[in-house]
Amino acid sequence: MNRKFMFLYLNTGGGHIAAAKVLKQAMEQRYQDVSVDMINGFDKKNKPGKWIFEYGYGLALNYFPGLFPLIYDLGQSRFVQHIVTFFLNIYIPFYLRKMILQNHVTDIVSFHFALTPTLKKALRRVPWPVNTTEIVTDPFNGPHSWFFVRDQHFLVYSQMMKDMAVKDCGISPGRVKVIPFLMNPKFRTPAIPDDINALRIKHGFDINRKIVLLVGGGEGLPGAVEIINQCLFHKAKFAIAVVCGRDKAKQRMLEVLHFTYPKLDLHVFGYVDFMDELVKLCDCAVIKAGPATLMEVLVNRKPVIICKYIHNQELENVRYAVKNNVGWFIQKPKNIYWKIDEILGDSGINERMQESFSRLDIDTDAVKVADLLMENKWPD
């Protein structure tokens, strides 16, 4: 049987599906006779799953921030993981089995921990062996739910995450391999000053103004409105680009603000497919500590201010930026404004930070990951 891959993802944030798309492109370019199907793990009938893992994720992140730490801590319990898996097993296994049989799938890669236990149940009724691998998209630390199913293969972004899998979750070391960070190659393409000016003109910015980018992944940046209000109050001299993602309510609110205060150089975007261009044209970025957004900004050597992070899950992402002297962790909107103003007004800060950026070693070669999946060689 020819190799046929299925990549499973969920629309929680943007990092899971982004990583899956990058790897799909790398695999199909590297191996012309291999095809990859991208499958959302929740079909249309699975409304409870969508509400909890997709819509609920965005609501908890942007409007009920105290809820997410509670969910995270409860999710560390294996008993709670069994309960969640029980309810997901009502909806998902039949759907996944149907997709596997229809597409004659030989290899499955899961990009979300919620899908892996139900995938294992679906595979019990598939009449051929299927290679299963889970790619852990949290780079340095994350929920133990990633390692709920122990008898499979894991690909992780760092030795720190591998150590957690082995020491804290009881995974055999031979089942875990460290891989490069999966990032769209567009972010790695260098941009010279003329390219940056062309991008600024393309997206309606003044080429002579400094630009700060506010972005938080697929669900937008929590607290973006408060930061922009500080910029309005202090009559900011720089331009502001804010990406709202799937948060339509916030997008409409900021569009009203843009028309009400035309002197505030505010540019409002929804869910975009040109994030690489916005990262390249900005001078610094304010972000939530999601791994995809953080790495995309850092590989472009842009100073970063982290204003939010998911309790425990993204803590090491914050520490990575701060310890490497390429970013700051600041929560209060007023202090964020003053740090932006300082960064954009002091060329010496950027000169010093470029030295720190030059010491970063972020491997993003997706072809290496494609080769690992094709070889499928693991220690006994």
Fold blueprint:
Elements lengths: L3 E6 L5 H16 L4 E6 L6 H16 L4 H9 L2 H26 L3 E4 L5 H8 L7 E5 L17 E4 L2 H9 L8 E3 L14 H10 L8 E5 L8 H10 L5 E5 L4 H13 L5 E4 L5 H7 L2 E5 L2 H9 L4 E5 L6 H9 L3 E3 L3 H13 L1 H13 L6 H10 L5
Parallel strand pairs: 1-2, 1-3, 3-4, 4-5, 5-6, 7-8, 7-10, 8-9, 10-11, 11-12
Helix pairs in contact: 1-15, 4-5, 7-10, 8-13
Shape field: globular
| Rg, Å, rounded | 21 Å
* Biggest pleated-sheet summary: 6 strands, parallel
Q: What is the mean predicted local confidence, pLDDT?
A: 87
Order of helices and strands: EHEHHHEHEEHEHEHEHEHEHEHEHHH
Helicity level, as a percent range? Answer: 40-55%
Order the strands across the largest sheet as they lie in space: 2-1-3-4-5-6
The secondary structure category is alpha/beta
Low-confidence parts: none
Q: Count the helices. How many?
A: 15
N- to C-terminal separation? Answer: 24 Å
Strand percentage lies at: 5-15%
Beta-strand segment tally: 12
